[in-house]
Amino acid sequence: MYYNHFGLKEPPFKITPNTEVFFTGSNRGAVLDALMYAIGNGEGIIKVVGEVGSGKTMLCRMLQTMLPKHIESIYLANPSVAPEDVLHAIAFELQLRLPKNADRLKVMQKLQEYLLKRHAAGKQVVIFVEEAQGMPLATLEEIRLLSNLETKHEKLLQIVLFGQPELDANLNQTHIRQLRERITHSFNLAPLQPSEVGEYLMFRLRAAGYFGPPLFNNAAIKKLSQAAQGLVRRVNILADKALLAAFADNVYLVTPKHVQAAISDSEFSLERGKLSNSPKRIWLWILLLSLGLASGLGIAYFLDQENALSSTHQAVVTAPAIKPQAPAQPDAVAVNSTPAVPSPPQIQQQVDILNSRLNITDSWLTNQPPTTVTIQLFGANDETQLKYALSQLASKVESDKIYVYRTRVNNQAGFNVIYGGFPDRAEAVRVLETLPEELKKNRPQLRTVAGVLEEIAQTR
Fold it and tell me: What is the DSSP secondary structure assignment for residue 155, as one 8-state letter?
């Protein structure tokens, strides 16, 4: 919406990781180079720690694009995977053919055979584990055992753990010390300093095609940096909203006033206090201006919609592949991606879907053999988003095979959505391959009922 106003060719502050706009400032470029060296030449386990929104996922994506051709990478993004399922998950990512109902020993044997063949061919294999702080310690220990796979001179598998600061706390526990002692390289993604925030803003604007003088004055940068606490994702969200506010004022310089409007429109909390609970919804006023409806009944109608939206809105933490359609906007930020508020019958239907599937899942899990295999589609910790996603999911797959159970990740309550029950992994893989592409994009993983039940038991 504001692109032409500022002479931009594309969105400058999208929060989706895009390796084409990787910022090498602060210590990001140095950490990337060090990780490249450690993976290519090091041994043991590598750890990368950073706060939420500090750029860990972007760093992981950059590594995947920059690794030499002789290094094969696989990616584990499911933090709730149970210990007995993690080896199968790795084998699945490597596309290994396993016998039906292969046990742990057989999977480990197949993994070792594969890694030895890759080593003989001059290849390396590295596993990237995201959200490692949310993994059960038993699962981390199972991953640690993979580091024992080696020849006389070299490790067969490199492991890189990406996690929030809670990962360090988990690794400091006595019974996980064997994993901690195998960490040979440890990196920390520090928040951006105020001077680095200014450099970052200009870098992203230039990448989006801007060639003019700075759009943010020094006072605006300072205010934005303090509010974002130097976290890249927050910087992106606030910068985007501040540009919208400046566009609404028909000016070409972002000032502290515009940054304050962006802060008031954001819903994350700060250590020094909580942001406004009644966001101003900058995008709504921009829409009013652009449509020429900022008068009379037009304002009254949109304000009614805004009040309804504010009363039910919750920020999305874990977004599944199926998303409701949001109003057309230049950037898709989480605070503005909430769907239009459903009518009361729709809300009731969504509530019924969630409660119904929770109850059915409890009974289904109790009556399944432990070896039954299911497909984990996605996780969520926002009930409103999950209810909508379930209503959409029911039109894409068999609704009576959709199951939902409660879990916890990083001490936060959440839900996992699984699909189907199959006698063996071969049948589960066959069904997985037939799922709609939008579900496959969320990288569904195979789970056993035994693993799901263990996860549920650990959260109680």
Answer: B
pLDDT, one tens digit per residue, over 177-189 is 888 888 888 999 9
d(CA 149, CA 403): 36
Domain boundary residue among 143, 160, 189?
189
Asked if 200 contacts 235 with a C-beta cutoff of 8 angstroms, the reply is: yes
Residue type, 373: V
Let me know whether 199 and 97 are in one domain.
Answer: no
Helices marked H in 13-55 — which ranges? 28-41
CB proximity list for 379: less than 8 A, separation 6 or greater: 78, 80, 318, 320, 407, 409, 414, 415, 416, 417
Looking at this protein, which amino acid is placed at residue 80?
S
Residues with Cβ within 8 Å of residue 382, at least 6 apart in sequence: 314, 315, 316, 317, 318
Total number of domains constituting the chain = 3
Q: Which of 147, 213, 134, 179 lies closest to 409 in space, CA to CA?
A: 134
The one-letter code for the residue type at 430 is: R
CATH number reported for the structural domain that contains residue 123 in this entry = 3.40.50.300
List, for residues 220-261, the tens digit of each pLDDT value. Answer: 999 999 999 999 999 999 999 999 999 988 898 999 999 999
Task: Confirm whether 17 is domain-assigned.
Answer: no
Is residue 11 within 8 A of residue 332, CB to CB? The reply is no
Q: What is the pTM of this model?
A: 0.65
Rounded to whole angstroms, the Cα distance separating 245 from 259 reads: 8
Q: Using the 8-state DSSP alphabet, how is residue 46 labeled?
A: E
Question: What's the CA gap between 224 and 240, in Å, rounded?
Answer: 11
Domain boundary among 136, 161, 189: 189
Cα–Cα nearest to 196, from 223, 225, 170, 216: 225
For residue 125, give Cα distances in angstroms to 72, 118, 157, 319. Answer: 5, 8, 5, 29
Residues in CB range of 8: below 8 A, 6 or more apart: 2, 205, 208, 209, 210
Q: Provide the b/e sequence for 90-129 (b: ≥16 CB within 10 Å).
A: bbbebeeebeeebeeeebbebbbebbeebbeeeebbbbbb
Contacts of 152 (CB under 8 A, 6+ apart): none
